Structures are given as structure tokens and as C-alpha cells.
Amino acid sequence: MRALRQGFTLLELLLAAGITLLLLGLIAQGLRSGSDTSRYIQTAQSTLEDLRFAGNLVSDYLSTAVFIYPKGITLTLNSGCESYTVCNPLTNSNQWTIGSDPIIAAILPPEDSGIACADTSAGKRGCHRFFAVYALSRGKVVEAASGAENPGPDPTNNDKWTLYVNLKYLSDPKEQKDFQNNEVAFTPPNTKIPVKLTNTQGNLLADYIKPGDGLTASFERCLDFSSGEIASLGSCNDVLPANLGIYTSAARVRFSLLGQITSGSRIHTFPGPTQPLVFQVGARNLSVRK
């Protein structure tokens, strides 16, 4: 009888090595895919929580506002985009138009901050505050920000937006001179609403906002004094800058937030592609006609 052949041929060894490498590649790909999925789930959950927190925070501020900027008004923040925290991602400028750009802005009641403001007949009180929430380019934020203001490098998502909040005490003489602190809000009818703000600085509020429509706002109802001293809620039309005053305030605002993350070749939008987080706010401290 022929003796049994011992060992393997070179061809058999090469085939075995090739199969082994193929299996290892498939395993590595599966592990990488699982890691990417896990990263996406964690990031999406964290971002969704941040969006809910951000929406509730903005709602709280707007509900106490003494004035909400209506659509059609253009705000100028600082003197240019030298500060990345005021740079409009749609126009790459420091100008923001309410109703067209991703921004919501308001004037908040006086707060005693220790900052000197104008003396009034009611005594010296705190300053009114300018409030705005808006979207910035994530790529530019990562490039310019430091410390806790930097959400961290993620080149795949440089095209996404971040959400920033801007809160400024109106202590500058040019901004404060027409503000008189009354029991509730401004003293009509001579109050002027600032549209050019200086020395403003935004702070990071939420990350991974969908570019384009990640922050949208509609102004559903505005003050209407056409029937007398008691305000009713009328439709909102574009307000000309020359007509801007406390009686032109928006009264009800509806805004939505939508997150988005690119992971590998997939783009994930949450809570859902057509299901943003929606918030509706009615301001309760708006002025009465005097």
C-alpha cells in the first residue's frame, strides 16, 4: 500500500492563509461597523438630550421677555466676524435677519447684576438684557474656539451647525440711554429697541445641529393695538426698522430644533428627518399701551 502523504503543499498553505485573512478582514469590518454604530447611538442620544435642554432653556427666556424681535428686523452683532461667536453661517457676516436667518432674539427684564445702569424715577435698578439664540458653523467653531466652548474635532461633520446662546447686559450708554426700567418692562412710548449690539459674546449650547433647517422659527402672533389701549394678538408682518418699537413685539413664537450626524457613509437626522423637536412660547411680560 502507498504510504499516507504527510504535511501540506505550498498551494494548500497559501489558500488557508488567504481564507484566514479574508475572515479576519470581515471580523474587523464588523467590529468597526459596530463601533461606529455604538458611537452614533451615544452621540445621537447625548445630542437629543442637549436639544431638549436647549429648547426648554430658550422657551424659559422667551416666556419672560419684555420684547421679542419680529421678523424682518436685521440685527448687527459686534463690528464684524472677528468673533466667531457672532458669525452668520448663511452669509458669513455679523448681520442676522429675523425670520430669514437661524436666530431668535429678545429683550429680557432688568436683572440686578451689579452693573451700573441708568437711574430712573423708580430708583437704580438692574440692566435690561439682550438675548439671542442662533446657529454657527461647526467647522469654524472647532477651528476658533478653545476650552469648553470647543465641541471637539470631527472633520466628517464640519458642515454641521452648533447652537449658541448670547446674553448681554445692556449697560452700554448707547444701548441703555432709551431704556427706563419700569415695573414690568419699558416706559412707552419713547423706548427704542437696539438693533446694533457691541461686545457680545456667545456660548455653546448644543452640538450637531442640522445645517439649513436645524433651527427654524415662525412668529405666529404679534401685538396689535389698533382697537385700543389693550393689546390683542394680530398677524405678524415684516417690520420696517423705522417702525420698530415695543408695540411691534412678537407675542407667540414657534421654533424647532433638528440634529444631524454623518457617520461613515450614512447621514442620521434626529429625532427624525421630518420630526423636529417643536416648542411654542407665549411671552407674558409684554408692554401695555400708555
From TrEMBL:
Protein name: Prepilin-type N-terminal cleavage/methylation domain-containing protein
UniProt KW keywords: Cell outer membrane, Membrane
InterPro entries according to UniProt: N_methyl_site
Subcellular location as annotated: Cell outer membrane
Cellular component terms (Gene Ontology): cell outer membrane
